[in-house]
UniProtKB/TrEMBL annotation:
Entry GO MF terms: AMP binding; protein kinase binding; protein kinase regulator activity
Region feature Disordered, mapped onto this chain: 1-21
Keyword Repeat: yes
Family the UniProt entry places it in: Belongs to the 5'-AMP-activated protein kinase gamma subunit family.
Listed InterPro entries: AMPK_gamma/SDS23_families, CBS_dom, CBS_dom_sf
Protein's name in the database: CBS domain-containing protein
Alphabetic keyword roster: CBS domain, Repeat
Superkingdom assignment: Eukaryota
Lineage: Eukaryota, Fungi, Dikarya, Ascomycota, Pezizomycotina
Organism: Neoarthrinium moseri
PANTHER family, alphabetized: AMP-ACTIVATED PROTEIN KINASE, GAMMA REGULATORY SUBUNIT, LD22662P
Bias kind Basic and acidic residues: ranges: 1-11
Length: 378
């Protein structure tokens, strides 16, 4: 999928809305931070066991906002998310894997649909996970570097089998199905992007129309539904959004291979880089692997995270942070204005607290408070 997009707003970081309550001379503790004033407070109330817990105005607004977003996702289709003009780079399954890397880098993209030209069929989606699998293969069979050089994209499934990775069939969706369905399928399969596949009326063959990402969907929501997202006034701490326990982290001096291993073990797409005081310095993302193995330079995987991060493209947008006191409303505002792929949750001293992925936000928007089987049959 072509990830080159119009440049968004200029802000580079999400300001921590809940700034530290600085201890200044003359102030008696405790005193409140600015956002506490803005957040409507629920009145303390004695609740009897027989009486259902009443909802606070802020809860009601939150539910109304989520309902608005869900209705929107059910009315809009995946087609609607596509920009008026876009390019789609599809790679032939017969291409050498090492050549595919150069094509992605030259075109500034991080994934592409694959085409089986022998059978005229869509053959899946090439993503950074496939390159991580090739790296794992190289690590497990270091004497086979010559073979690794000769691998083609059509060999990716064999590589998965050789390293014992469970092969997941690429899920796709018809472009005119509701956007809710595309989101739901992505969340079910833990995919961060989904190909839009149509059937050609004349030939009856599959046609890849485009690929949409969680990033693009959340941007679409943020840009078009401010009337709903502005109702999401609860903080991410209140709605327990994101991951705060068993965080996978790394240091600047760790090797790229160690971080790749962390991503595989935890099934995550990014690892925050911290110093010895738990202060967040950067984030190593799965896509950062791509420049590391450009030209078959697998030895570079032994280099450090710090060295690898210097290979990022010049237009890299930076990493985004938020605090647990930020409301989902303000997170959507940042998504609207910037190119956010995840947020690192930090405290007021910029120490790591958690990770907030786009999948966490999407899951909350689609399913929070719902019961039963969320996912439509594939
Ligand atoms: P992602 O791979 O970014 O879609 O995230 C998948 C899930 O893993 C989400 O629930 C995230 O909150 C969580 N997650 C993301 N990064 C980390 C990390 N470094 N350590 C632990 N969990 C994470």
């Amino acid at each position: 999928m072509d990830e080159v997009e119009p440049k968004d707003g200029a802000d580079s970081r999400l300001p921590a809305s809940n700034a530290a309550a600085n201890i200044r001379p003359g102030h008696a503790l405790p005193f409140v931070a600015p956002s506490s004033y803005l957040r409507p407070k629920t009145k303390p109330r004695t609740i009897s066991m027989s009486e259902p817990t009443p909802m606070s105005p802020i809860d009601e607004e939150q539910i109304q906002g989520l309902k608005g977003l869900r209705d929107f996702l059910k009315k809009r289709t995946s087609y609607d998310v596509l920009p008026l003009s876009f390019r789609l780079i599809v790679l032939d399954n017969d291409l050498l894997i090492k050549k595919s890397l150069n094509i992605l880098i030259q075109n500034g993209i991080v994934s592409a649909p694959l085409w089986d030209s022998q059978n005229s069929r869509f053959a899946g989606l090439l993503t950074s996970t496939d390159y991580i699998n090739v790296i794992q293969y190289y690590c497990q069979f270091p004497n086979e570097l010559d073979n690794v050089e000769k691998f083609r994209l059509s060999n990716l499934r064999e590589i998965e089998k050789a390293i014992g990775v469970h092969t997941i069939e690429t899920v796709s969706v018809h472009p005119s199905r509701p956007l809710f369905e595309a989101c739901s399928r992505m969340l079910k399969s833990r995919a961060r992007r989904i190909p839009l596949v149509d059937i050609d009326d004349e030939t009856g063959r599959e046609t890849v129309v485009s690929v949409i990402t969680q990033y693009r969907i959340l941007k679409f929501i943020a840009v078009n539904t401010e009337q709903h997202t502005s109702l999401l006034k609860k903080t991410i701490q209140e709605i327990r959004l994101g991951t705060y326990k068993n965080l996978a982290t790394c240091k600047m001096t760790d090797s790229v291979l160690d971080v790749i291993n962390l991503m595989v073990v935890h099934n995550i797409s990014a690892v925050p880089v911290i110093d010895k005081n738990n202060t967040v310095l950067n984030v190593f993302e799965a896509v950062d692997v791509i420049p590391c193995i450009k030209g078959g330079a697998y030895d570079e995987l032994k280099s450090t995270v710090g060295e690898a991060l210097t290979k990022r493209p010049e237009d890299f947008q930076g990493i985004y942070t938020c605090t647990e006191g930020d409301r989902l409303e303000s997170i959507f505002q940042t998504i609207r204005q910037s190119r956010v792929h995840r947020l690192v949750v930090v405290d007021d001293d910029h120490k790591l607290r958690g990770m907030l992925s786009l999948s966490d936000i999407l899951k909350y928007v689609l399913f929070h408070g719902e019961e039963g089987d969320y996912f439509p049959p594939s």
